[in-house]
Design brief:
- This protein is α+β, with helices and mostly antiparallel strands and 113 residues long.
- It has a single domain, classed as Alpha-Beta Complex (Aspartate Aminotransferase, domain 1).
- It contains 4 helices and 6 strands.
- A 6-stranded antiparallel β-sheet has the order 1-2-3-4-6-5.
- The protein is globular.
- 25% of the residues are buried.
Amino acid sequence: MEDVRALALALPEATERPSYGTPGFRVSDTLFARVLDEESIVLKVDFDHREALLRDKPDAFAVTPHYQDYPMVIVRLAHVGRPLLRALLTEAWRRCASPRLLGTKPARQRSAR
């Protein structure tokens, strides 16, 4: 679990705060990953990416009925190496980071006519 913590907190402005009684990792005050237990975490992914992960590595990734309607995937840590874990956490962080952190400007709002 220390690998998860170290990788998550190495991301810009990532913070740790309890979420449902376990460590949660946030950026821009949005949860991007959370420890479920000693063997797994849950993190943000888009639905298409989640489907690909579930199809390609069913031993490493899962979705329970609780997460079915959310853009989240469960990662079984024993089945993913550190490079993949880093990539997954980074992508989850990117999904939640503010435009400022991502180095982009937010889209301008069009004025109502």
